[in-house]
Each structure stands twice: as structure tokens, then as C-alpha cells.
Amino acid sequence: MPADHYNPDIARRDLKYYIFDWDDNILRMPTYIHLERKLRDGSWVPHLVSTALFSVIRKDTAQYRPPGGVWDRAFVEFRDPATRTESKFLEDARTAIDRLLSGDDKSPPSFNTFRKTLREGRIFAIVTARGHKPESLRKGVEMFIDRLLSTDEKAEMVWNLRGYLVAYEGPAANESMTDEEVVANYLSMNRYHAVTNPDFLSAVRADPAAPGADNPETRKQFAIMDFLEWLFKMIERIGARRPISVGFSDDDPGNVAAVADFIRRVLAERFPAVKFVVYDTSDPDVEKGHKLVVSGQMALF
Ligand SMILES: [Mg+2]
Prior knowledge:
The protein has helices at about 50-55, 70-75, 90-100, 110-120, 135-150, 150-170, 170-175, 180-190, 200-205, 215-240, 255-270; strands at about 15-20, 30-40, 45-50, 65, 125-130, 190-195, 245-250, 275-280, 290-295. The protein is an alpha/beta fold. Helix 6 crosses helix 8 and helix 10 crosses helix 11.
């Protein structure tokens, strides 16, 4: 597509950003958690659990436990071991996409919001309890774009992204890039946080202001804070003065409650210009999930 083909109105658009949980929110992945389940006679047997079921039973420690009591062993499929040439994340994303395209599965609640986010070229973060490297998540997003956006939708995405380049980086930056480079540049502006990845954990532990690395909820808070600080650096750099909203979606009610609480306690004060909207997508039959406006009144930044 020629570089002079771009969305000229993009600089007037509202500043809307999203934080997405991945599993059962964007895609329904065939990745299993390895647990043990207690039988009536008190013995324990191996038991594979889907991420959707795990979000319901994860507090039921009387009936379920990780193998040998070691959580790392429960999440072997959620890591990128050095022995694998392709991330299990990418392999499972391929299977999930195949199932969607063949009609064997219906899309999770934030699937269409994610597609729209990509088409509009909006900045987003993936925040997941998985333990993969950021590059693995990014490759999953590349595969999503490649296989789930039509040719017209990909063209629309590039048209919008070139609009942002012209508005905020100047026409020369836009003209210097091929379509592929425009998309790669966009993907490198997003954040990919798998909060049980060893490098991510080291970053949390190295930050004295971090809320603690010991549970998934506080690690997700660290990832959300990182994304907001990253966003605000960018917004200040481009000097945009328009309403800002940040949406967060997750199908795990425990995460939704923890994030809503974090917004009220910390983020509302730290980022008073932001309207925070939380989507509880725990009911797979409710498109986009249940919307909860947690804070903000669309004040100008
Ligand atoms: Mg999930």
C-alpha cells in the first residue's frame, strides 16, 4: 500500500487503550494445568484442568493440589522450556485459531474487541498469568493478525497505523517504512507481560516500589502499572490532550476484583485523568463481558 494512503483524522481520535488477559478472554487455548484431585478414600490422582475450570477451582485446596505440592509442576505447559523449538503458546494458539476457523469453537468474550483494537491500531498490553517470554506472546499476536484479520482489515490497520505515524512522528517516518515495518513498529509498541516468566519476576523483585512478587494478582498489578507508565511517557511525548480511557478485561473473577480494587486504591489517584473500565468476561455467553466503570470522568489530560 502506498505510504500516502493513511487515515488523516487519527489525531482527533480519543485515546483508548486496552489491557487483555489472554486465556478464555481472547482465545480458548488447549493448554492444561496439571493438578491432582483427591478421591473419597483420601488418595490423590493426576487431573488435567483447563484454564477456564482452574479460574473456578483454584482456591479449592481441599480437593485439588499441584503435583507433589509444587506449583511449577502444575504449569509446565505455560512455560517456554529451552528444549522446545516452538513455544507451546504458539502451538496452542494455532490449535485455538484452527478450531475457531473450522467452527468447532466459539470465540471468547473479548475476541472481537481485540480484533477491533488491532484494526484501529490502538496500543494494548497482554497481561497473563502464563510464564512465556514476551516474544512468544508477540508471535501469538502476529499469528492472530495473520490468520484472523481479513485482507481488508489488515489494510485498514495499516491505514490507521500510517495515520498515527504521520500525526505523531512526521511524514518522513511514515514514508520510510514498508507496510511490514509499520506493523512491526506497532507490535513493538505494545506490552507483552507473562507474569510468571522468570525475567518478569526478576524485574518485580528488583523494584523496591513493587507490590510484591509472591502472588499472581500483585504481579498483574505490577504489569498494569508498567503499561500505564509506558503509555503516559508516550502520551506526554506526543503532547496529546484528549480524554484517555483504559479498559481491562479478564475472565477470572478473582483477577477482576483484584484489579478493580487496585484501580480504586492506587491508579485512580496516580492517573486522575484516566477513565478506567473493567470487563468481567467470566460468562462465555456475554459478548464483551460485564462492564464496570471503576474510576475517572473523562477529564482532559
Ligand atoms: Mg483468562
